[in-house]
Each structure stands twice: as C-alpha cells, then as structure tokens.
Amino acid sequence: QVQLVESGGGLVQPGGSLRLSCAASGRIDRIHMMGWFRQVPGSQRELVANINGGGTKSYVESVEGRFTISRDNAKNSIYLQMNSLKPEDTAIYYCNADVSTSIAGPKNYWGRGTQVTVSS
Fold it and tell me: pLDDT value at position 105?
C-alpha cells in the first residue's frame, strides 16, 4: 500500500504565495508520474501540473508562469510553488501519483487533499 500526504495549504490574500508538499510512503519500488489536481465543489477535478520521473513538466494554461512543480526523487516528494495567487485558484488540491510497489505494477494513488483559499 502507498500513502500520499499533502501539506502546505491555507488562507492567503490575492497576489500571495503558498507552497504545497506531497510525500509518498509505503512499499515503493518506483514512482512514475506525479502531479497536482484541484477541485472546487460542483466541478470536475482538473489537472494543475505534473512531472514525470525524468523531470518533464506540464501545466494547465491558467497557472503557467505562476506555479512551479518540482520533484525530489530521493524523498519521494513533489512540491507546488504557487505565486501570484488569484481567488479562482481557491480549491482543494490533491496529490496524485503512479507508483510501482515491490508486489505490483503501476497503480494510481491519491492523497486526501489540502484546502487552498485565496481571499482578502
């Protein structure tokens, strides 16, 4: 079993910054793609950014130039630096990862989410 635990959410004013962290733990053999999704009530969960094992990154257009995803393979962790935050960035942010364990091939896992609220 694999667990993903997010941290770093909170309340911030428009124009402010937050840094989200996600750490994976368990019987991990290899982590493939890792990413951040977000969801607001009544809407579908959307991909914000992801990064593969080789470090290739992609972003949804609405966060390009403001958010930066990074990865620390030694710590089985990813981060999301969010700058110039806007009220429309308010959502629950979820960590997601494709993980191979010592007993199984790649499976997809989700964290429980962390709330980000951008408001004055």
Answer: 85
